[in-house]
Amino acid sequence: MAHESFEDEEVAGLLNKHFISIKVDREERPDIDSIYMTACQLITGRGGWPLSIFLAPDRKPFYAGTYFPKYSYYGRIGFVDLLNRIIELWNKDRNLLLRTSDEISSIIIKHFESSTTEAFDNSIIDKTFETLKLNFDAEYGGFGTAPKFPAPHNLLFLLDYNNHQANEMVEKTLTEMRKGGIYDQIGFGFHRYSTDKKWFLPHFEKMIYGQSSLIEVYALAYAKTGDDFYASTVNEVYEFIKNEMTSPEKVFYSALDADSEGEEGKYYLWTSDEIKLLLGSDYGIAREIFNFSDEGNHRNESTGNPTGKNIFFLQQRPDELHVKHGREKIESIRKILLEARNKRIKPLRDEKILTDWNSMVISSLAQAGSLLENEDMITSAEKAFAYLIDHAFVNNQLYHYFENKIPGFLDDYAYLIKAALELYKTTLKEEYLLRALQINDILTDLFKDKFEGGFFYNRLEEDTIKLKFAYDGAIPSGNSIQLLNLIELYFITGNNSYRELAENSIKVFSSALNKSSNGYTYFLRGIMKIHSMDTSLLLISGSKPEQKFISQLRKNPNLFYLHIDKNNIEEMIKRAPWIENYKLDSEKTVYYLCKNFSCSLPTDDREEILLAIEQKK
Fold first, then answer.
1. Which of 36, 242, 313, 523 is the most buried (most CB within 10 A)?
2. 262: buried, middle or exposed (CB in 10 Å: 19+, 13-18, 0-12)?
3. Nearest to 379 by CA among 390, 370, 388, 371
4. Which residues, 6 or more positions from 187, have their beta carbon under 8 angstroms from its beta carbon?
5. Peptide bond into 602 cis (omega under 30)
6. 206-240 in b/e burial notation, b at 16+ Cβ within 10 A?
């Protein structure tokens, strides 16, 4: 539609003469996108992009749609005819359009109003697992058919659900994605989704949030299984982020486009002749590894016609191929191909620095860095967090896109709190815990629904429709992230107000969850956490233990931490009054394993602590 209409002089003439055209970047203003996408779904019964919304001067929508061809054909109205029809109605029967806009706006407002609260049906967690199991593709992993999305929040739910079948579903999916064309076998990183069920033909766009979410899943899979295959995938994706998605300021860009030179995927595709010329005698090994052919395995997504080019994919796991061909040989081939590809015209890079997406990367790198004992990841996370605090958090106000001074939404605050908590668990530096508590107080003031519970997406004082939802879309919702934040803060501090906020959030969204829980798998993780009998806290008094021991501790997903040393006792007692009853000024480091704010006897025996934690899994 960009080429057919938005760059067309005839269309531009109509728009410029009769309309005020406003182009919205939905990543800069996700609140506007949510409101008007809802309008489109209510008007047409479906949504999608590109989204065209026609508004009265008071911003109320009266017509919406997604793709329009330039001219009408086969019963589908063209954009030119649509514009002329709206112009005619506006001039001859304006009141009809205004009445329509009032009616649609009223429906939108009702759509976002919360229903009455109800109790959460605990059987929903098991039912959600059964539904995921029913939709699971046993042959290729993932859920459903085509197009197939990685859906990391489903995989995280399954890891938390933690039974044999759930774990197998996760492991199968992670393995097949890493082998597939959805993974960039040469430069690393995951493309946005697969257009087929085999993870073979991707939509070639690469999103930073996709890398972040999958780092978290692969790292937790490594922690659970000890399989180095998952750790190596994390390291590769991190290499891609460092090479392609990191700004000079050490924060993270938003996306790489799917297109280069006007053609989707051109940057990533190969002819066999190109490969022969580059690799010479290693051509046969490369063909066996990456499964390309002389005639090409790639077909045009829209026409289905062969292009003569190839997408690289694997038939075996990389570690199995290393045994067969040698790690050094495969790496040599990859680097030759990567060097040649780097000389091509690269896809455009979206260099927006968004607070919520950057916070996602920080969280994932802090967590993965700890689990994999990778200090570089931890350092990267700390540098990016410091940059956000210095540039996006100004006078106790957080910006979503600080370059354009767009105020932060719920997601920005919630994800930044999560980033601070992950850094705290990784480093045990009190500054991160205190920052999480500070930002949480601000979030509560700005976004809490004081009447029903849960949190609005946009600020209370904004003169616009108030959005409140917990649905987990491409990324987990702000309410889902904040639910887990509150539970963690409660278990650390003992402050019951955090638990009350969490429970009110569960109540207000329970009606939606009870009806259709599959879109709320990240939110369900919080519910499982708050009801878990295994959740415990390790109170550490004295010097901070070294990173290796923290890494061992972090492999238990239901363990939280609170570190006290002689310099922060008073501050920590203010934040967590329950710890005042314990001896916290010991010269040596001691550990209390605590449950329900009651702690076992202190010990300085780390093996004893690790054994006790292992028994709680």
1. 523
2. exposed
3. 370
4. 240, 243, 244, 338, 341
5. no
6. bbbbbbbbbbbbbbbbbbbeebebbbbbbbbbbeb
What fold does the segment set 123-258+351-531 form as a domain? Glycosyltransferase (1.50.10)
pLDDT (tens digit, 9 = 90+) per residue, 287-314? 999 999 999 999 876 677 889 999 999 9
In this structure, of 98-107, 214-223, 334-343, 488-497, the range with the lowest mean pLDDT score is 98-107
Same topology for domains 2-112 and 536-616, yes or no?
Answer: yes
Task: Read off the pLDDT of each residue in 306-331 and give the average, rounded to a whole number.
Answer: 95
**Residue 400 near residue 408, CB atoms below 8 Å:** yes
pLDDT in tens, 372-398: 999 999 999 999 999 999 999 999 999
Among residues 88, 44, 84, 97, the alpha carbon closest in space to that of 66 is found at 44
pLDDT at 168: 98
Class for the domain spanning 536-616: alpha beta
What gap in Å lies between CA 196 and CA 192, rounded to an integer?
13
Average pLDDT on 412-425 reads 98
Q: Among 59-73, 164-178, 209-223, 358-372, which is the least confidently predicted range?
A: 59-73
Contact 520, 471 (CB under 8 A): yes
- What are the structural domain ranges in the chain? 2-112, 123-258+351-531, 263-346, 536-616
For 605, counting Cβ atoms within 10 Å of its Cβ (0-12 exposed, 13-18 middle, 19+ buried), the class is exposed
Q: In sequence order, what are the residues at sequence separation of 6 or more whose Cβ sits closer than 8 angstroms to the Cβ of residue 533?
A: none
* pLDDT higher than 80, residue 134: yes
Neighbours of 534 (CB within 10 A): 14
Polymer length in residues for the chain: 617
Give the pLDDT confidence score for residue 534 in this predicted structure.
83
| Global pTM value | 0.93
The secondary element (H helix, E strand) that includes residue 416 is helix 410-427
Amino acid at 236: E
The pLDDT, as a whole number, for residue 116 is 61
Contact 292, 310 (CB under 8 A): yes
Q: Which residues of 341-366 are buried (b: 16+ CB within 10 A; e: fewer)?
A: beeeeebeebebbbbbbbbbbbbbbb
CA 444/CA 421 separation, integer angstroms: 17
Under DSSP, the state recorded for 205 is -
What does pLDDT average to over the chain?
93
CATH number for domain 2-112, candidates 3.40.30.10, 3.40.190.10, 3.40.50.720, 1.20.140.10: 3.40.30.10
Q: For residue 554, give every residue at least 6 positions away whose Cβ sits within 8 Å of its Cβ, in sequence order, or none.
A: 223, 367, 370, 371, 425, 426
Contacts of 196 (CB under 8 A, 6+ apart): 146, 147, 148
| 302 vs 261: which has the higher pLDDT | 261
CA distances from 214 to 201, 219, 249, 553 (A): 19, 8, 24, 22
The 10s digit of each residue's pLDDT in 433-446 is: 999 999 999 999 99
| pLDDT for residue 616 | 64
Task: Report the alpha-carbon distance of residue 90 to residue 76 in Å, rounded.
Answer: 22
